[in-house]
Design a protein that fits this description.
It contains no helices and eleven strands. With 119 residues, it is mainly β. The mean pLDDT is 96.
């Protein structure tokens, strides 16, 4: 069974930092991209950041310069370092990845982790 498990969410004050982790497990032969999305109550899902198999990264305008996505290829894990957090960053953060399992590429999503930015 292939799965993604996020961790690292929590409550933080404005201006603070958090680091999210997304660990892929199971019989995975390769991973293309890994991404972080977020969804706040009453808002549409937003693509926050993506990192490709080659290490290229992209960010939403709303987080560029504050968030950094990285990847540990040996551990099949992606990270999202979030600095200078704002109340509008409050959301459930989901990890997505395109992974090869059983000879077929498919997209997987984690269960999500809550990030709350509040004083």
């Amino acid at each position: 069974q292939v799965q993604l498990v996020e961790s690292g969410g929590g409550l933080v004050q404005p201006g603070g930092s958090l680091r999210l982790s997304c660990a892929a497990s199971g019989s995975i032969s390769s991973i293309n991209f890994m991404s972080w999305y977020r969804q706040a109550p009453g808002k549409q899902r937003e693509l926050v950041a993506t990192i490709t198999s080659g290490g290229s990264t992209s960010y939403a305008d709303s987080v560029r310069g504050r968030f950094t996505i990285s990847r540990d290829y040996a551990k099949n894990t992606a990270y999202l370092q979030m600095n200078s957090l704002k109340p509008e960053d409050t959301a459930v953060y989901y990890c997505y990845a395109e992974m090869r399992h059983g000879g077929v590429f498919d997209r997987y999503r984690g269960q999500g982790t809550q990030v709350t930015v509040s004083s």
